[in-house]
Amino acid sequence: MRVIELACDESGSEGEHLVGGETDVFAHASVRLTIEAATECVLELRDRIRSPAREYKANHLLRSRHRPALEWLLGASGPIHGNARVHLTDKAFFVVGRVVELLVGDRAAAVTFYRSGRSGCGPGTWQVFLEAANELLRRYRGNAGAPVDGFFRAVEALPPHELAARLRRTRPRAEALRAQLLAYNPRAVPVLDTLIPALARAVVHWSRDGAAVSIVHDEHSTLTVHRVARLTELVGGACRLTGVRLVDSRSDPRVQVADFLAGVARKIASDELNGRGDPELTGLLRPYVDPRSVWADQPSWARLSRTAGP
Questions:
Q1: Contact 170/103 with Cβ under 8 angstroms?
Q2: Which of 131, 162, 163, 173 has its CA 20 to 30 A from that of 58?
Q3: pTM of the model as a whole
Q4: pLDDT band at 120, cuts 50/70/90?
């Protein structure tokens, strides 16, 4: 059996705090390079950037004076073209999708609901709803009823919408969900986990021609034995995913390259989502973007992807 070894890293992870944090986009990159090719890539970037930093990160590439280095990395003649993929998650849409799926059972309806809220609500009203939905789905102890009360207050404040009306009728289900979230289960994958779905997409993409995938990933506290087992189940078993190995990114140049891609992709995508995108950089990122990214904003997606919708 042919096995592809992928190097992976993410940018934008803030645990289950998906709304109101430091970042609004989560990006996960997978890179298929040999250690030798990745080493050459890192050395070339060092030569182009010439920073005294011991470890280079995406923020070095994102500085305006280092733009030529970033253009080289992402460009058609660069080292990762055709050998890398990035999965993007609009965190706010991810939260909306999960709360609608779990309370109403109609995930497809979340797309139009999110677009309507983003464009039709006052920014304060919509932000309060997003934060309340995030709190409802987070696993934290304290006043178990407070997140439920806060969520339904936020739903009541929303403008008239068919899905908002359906959400208002789901309080018993929300209370049961809250109790379930607070019941400790080490094997459960959090409902707000963005990493496992992104990893699953990477495995599906790179194994599409029948190869199996082995993953080398930067150390990540959420990649527990139980979650790796769940990932294996999601992608179809060990015939498709042979294993996940966690490393310090500084010890593997392939993971460093994945870190570069994830970091710059998160920033470029966030800028597009917020209407301040750079058309040239967005165009350079476009060939790497997973068409099944978790994204619903139409204007930004039209610029980020070559497909009509995620």
A1: yes
A2: 131
A3: 0.95
A4: confident
